[in-house]
Amino acid sequence: MSRRDTAWAWLSKSAVPWYLLTAGVTAFFTYFALDLSRAKLGVPWLYTGDALATADHFKTTLEQGWYEHNPNLGAPWGQNYNDFPVADNLHMIAAKVLGLFSGHWPVVLNMYYFLGFILAALAAYWFFRVCRMWPPLAVALSVLYALAPYHFIRGESHLFLASYYCVPLGLGLLIFLLRGESLWTSRPSRYRLLGFLTGRGAFAVVAVALLATSSTYYGVFFIILLVFTAAFVLVRDHSWRRFMGAAGIGVVTVVVMLINMAPDVIFGWVNGPNPGGFFRNADDSEVYALKLSQLLLPWAGNRITALSDLRAFYDRTFPLPSEQPALGLIGALGLVISLLVVAYMVIAHRRRTAGEPTGPATIAAGHVETIRYVSLLTLVAFLFSTIGGLSTLISFFTTALRGWNRMSIVIAALCLVAFGLALQLLLTWAFRRLKFPKVVAFVTVGVVSVGVLGVGYYDQTPAVASDYPGITASYTADETFFSALQQELPAGSDVFQLPYIPFPENLASNGLVTSDEIIPFLHTTTLNWSAGGIKGRPQSDWPYAVSEQPGPQLVKLAAASGMSGILIDTWAFDDKGAALSAELSATLGAPESTSSDGHWQFFDLRSERRALAAEYTPDQLAEIEARVTDPVDLSLLPGFRPTSTSDLTAGEADTVSPRFTLLNDRPDARAVTVSFTLTLPTAPGATAVVSFPDGSSQSVVAGPDGAVDVTQSLTVQPGDQPVEVTVAAGSAAAPPVVRLSDLRIEEQAVGALLGD
After folding, report:
1. Cα 565 from Cα 544, distance rounded (Å)
2. Separation between Cα atoms, residue 631 and residue 625, nearest integer Å
3. Global pTM exceeds 0.85
4. Per-residue pLDDT averaged across 551-576, rounded?
């Protein structure tokens, strides 16, 4: 046989052509689904909301080497993402790899988003083939998995969640376990080490390592399904060996997750906890869960207007729209099949043994068996992720995981298997009944696969793509403005940003998301910006107290903090910043520059800074700057829930003795005056005792409206110091509702600077 014949024989039996076909078809359909003919690779395909925070990660990784610390944000102290634990490190590694080809963050971001579709399809194809799906049908359903509504809903806003290409790898391992196959086998080889490194055991370790590094959510979802699978196999097969094999995979997964989280844990040990940085309400586990109706209904971006309107009506009318989880038509049919199978199946059933004959009937039985397995996994996934499901019980122990609707992409993969194998069984029955020749049967499978892909593509891909021209115009306007500003200010200059919006996951008073304040950083390399510090620590939240001052005092404190200018985000104000601009202009004169779209205004502070330098010695000025930018701060936690995303001084509690916290992260004691308004139950003569960390206390009596003003001067020692409010009326069984507002901390040294 010639080399050409040998190569052709290899290709005809190899899976490589099918993987190449899967990648090519996915790339083709993704290009049209995203309408990329109208997009530019050098401009982000989404330029708003959480997509800006994603861009922050990518740009920081490209410029600083890793994303955890960014000296250009949260000025003057820098942004420390250790305070907002993110274990999705695989995507940052991918950013570094893609950065070898381009150092421009929009290019890297867009490339990774596009590649995520192809990688998801390839991983899904492997999983579907593990489930013994016919190659043509596996290709079609793999493309549909990559083009799941979930992918477009997440987009570049939640890019790490949209990069779900490791999920099918974990599901494939579960199928191996459910079939009674070992995960820790090695490949036969004359070299033992080589056989081990190329065997299924090595593949399993790599697969779960990638999965655990890609997303904490997907890692936890896998562990949940793995625990169920291990218990199921133990009960069914009475095999502790297989159970321990599954446990070994679980240990690897947990260890990898802990390794990814280790830098954040160590940072918390060294610098103390920051409960405000990553705060979740306990009820978020149900607010962000999913419902059966959501999975079965069309998704919000459906091309058929009547179907998208139906989904809009549902999300608008019924409670808890969550993040609009949906499976699409093909996935929904698979879910129905899974639910019907679960209704009739039993856990213990006879399985084919190695000694039984093989044949069409046995192959069909194997498909039915696999449908049962994925149906069981679907049921478990749904029981955890549905509203009021088992995830609620988990929230009693941790609130770190709240987005349980994200289990929908796991359910989607399982439901596509149920649909594909059910269709395969139906076609097999038809081919036998009608006695189709093999060639006709093969062509029929191809035609059906193309039809499934066409229907799924039309159903799952968005009717309206991104507004690429609008994004380009906005991005270009910002690029022009901040490039000019960077040329004007000396390298290393700090700029104070207004308004202050706690970062991340907060809103301005008019609803603008905090990520908008990251935009200046995305267009500069030599300037530092006060926004973007992770909320919850004095060195990040200090701009809030400064921003609450009247114009002249604000200007003086901003200059004293070492800032060279003030940047106003006019879109974060209902009046487009008109009142604030007028207030600053009264002290500083007209804005130095304004962006072409009116989004940004810049005021120069360098003359104010020079005036302070003439009044104070360098050591005095450095001490003033440290006190302004690292003040005694406050946290409503642990006892008070914030009642506003833009007002850090307002909260409420429904416990007998709620606490808020004074934060002093400097090594010296600080003399301050604390003032706030306390609102107690409106019962006549309601009283409370306010206990301060220096041992002093005040007994207060509420007025007719329940409100009472409290003022106390004290010395705050280093560390976190609690202030406790004990209400006389109320008990643990019937706790009172206590509200806190207008909380202020005035430091004597800063007051002296302002002439108070």
Report:
1. 16
2. 10
3. yes
4. 92
